[in-house]
Specification:
About 45% of the residues lie in helices and about 20% in strands. By secondary structure, the protein is an alpha/beta fold.
Length: about 290
């Protein structure tokens, strides 16, 4: 159900947030939708791992279909790695998918743990889509997506054993975000993010990173900003994994596909020149 303008303004509070919400409300990029059509898990993140060269070697008439299936396998593999880092989650626990997109990772986490999963997004169209997918799979009693702002969710304090962001932290202030997560997590609860961040060592945003910012209407943070904001909010890293090398194959294959959007070259340039990192950070609330 579409919210009234008054209700929407309580969720989307600034002109920048409105621009981001409008971007994702209108977004119907085949690189997200056609990949999700493979098995009904719709993601809004990239992939990791080596791709199978045979997808380019078979019959030409089915080549694109094979490439799409392989890209989707890589993005689901990325979600699996994120879920692996949530730690021991029991069926009675509750998880939060912050910046949930169309809900693919929420459904995967529920499949893994059998627990309740809530998702939040400032995109009403994505929330509606994600909830429709949960109903279609018959998991809507335990997987629910909400039109809410991840900086101020309105969800109960200390209710969550795990929270994650999968490529969505570049839209918000990290100190405000992690303050909200410190409120939501139980003591010892786990926060996991996978994110692109610019390299402090190379100094500022490179030209390639700036092109990524412009393409997605986002504001990519530095690597150091994550650790400063985590520490300020009592979130202590337990695992930091550099996934940069692991994500380059995904971008190389995507550049060869019919779904290429033109942003592949800036990503590959930024990763190869090391001005941009693809990190997984897992942190515990103390």
């Amino acid at each position: 159900m579409t919210m009234t303008p008054e209700a929407s303004s309580r969720v989307v509070r600034t002109a920048y947030q409105q621009a981001v919400a409008e971007y994702w409300n209108k977004e119907k990029d085949p690189v997200n939708l056609r990949l999700g059509d493979v098995d009904g898990l719709y993601h809004h993140h990239y992939g990791i791992g080596d791709w199978d060269p045979s997808v380019l070697e078979g019959p030409e008439e089915t080549r694109d279909e094979r490439v799409i299936e392989e890209l989707h396998r890589l993005e689901s593999a990325q979600a699996d790695v994120l879920i692996d880092h949530l730690g021991p989650i029991a069926p009675g626990h509750r998880l939060l998918d912050a910046g949930c997109g169309r809900g693919g990772t929420s459904i995967m986490a529920n499949q893994r743990f059998g627990c309740q999963v809530d998702g939040v997004s400032i995109s009403e169209s994505q929330v509606e889509f994600a909830n429709a997918q949960a109903r279609k799979r018959g998991v809507d009693a335990k997987v629910a997506h909400h039109f809410r702002n991840m900086l101020d969710t309105g969800l109960p304090s200390g209710a969550f054993h795990g929270i994650w962001n999968n490529e969505s932290t570049m839209y918000v202030d990290l100190f405000a975000l992690f303050s909200e997560y410190a409120r939501l997590l139980v003591h010892g609860g786990r926060y996991v993010c996978i994110t692109g961040c610019y390299n402090d060592v190379t100094g500022g945003r490179s030209k390639a990173v700036s092109r990524i910012d412009e393409h997605y209407t986002c504001n990519i943070h530095s690597r150091s900003a994550y650790f400063k904001a985590l520490a300020a909010n009592g979130l202590v890293p337990i695992n930091v994994v550099d996934l940069t090398a692991a994500t380059i194959p995904y971008w190389e294959l995507r550049a060869k596909s019919s779904l290429a959007t033109g942003i592949e070259e800036p990503f590959l340039t930024a990763y190869r020149e090391r001005s941009f990192h693809y990190l997984l950070i897992a942190a515990d609330r103390i």
